[in-house]
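Problem 12. The chain below contains 156 residues. Write out its predicted structure in token notation.
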Amino acid sequence: MRLFWVWGDVLHRGKPWLILWDTGKLLLAKCHKKRVEAARKIQAWWRGNLVRRTLLVAALRAWMIQCWWRTILHRQHQKLQQSLLRIYVIQEESVVKLQSWVRMWQCRQYYCQICDALCVFQPPNRSLVTQNKDTLQVQYGVVSKQPEFHIEILSI
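Solution.
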């Protein structure tokens, strides 16, 4: 029995097949066909693995870049919040200081108004207003739109 391997013109799925000539009979090698199909399946499986691995690597790299970018955005947001908080604190401190100055000025104006009223009501000999047990008591009915407060100066 003589076997000859020859390339034939028979195409199966676009690929040439080996045709076995055996003493005048044309036989298609079934064993070879099974091996080719198995090789195709293995190659397809391997290509699929390579593609999936490549896609996984690309997805992981994209995920890492996204995490990095979110971290950068979070840091920028925190810096912005800190700067806005600093500005807010400075503004609040300034407002409190201005309010205290205005209140102090109002109290000083009221005090000066009372002192001016005392100077008007004092006798010409420039004596002090009634002094009772080291306490200076001032109780004049000065009409004012500002809130009243009572001054007591204690000496020790």
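Discussion. The first strand starts at residue 3 and ends at 12. Students who got a different answer should revisit the alignment rule from Section 12.3.
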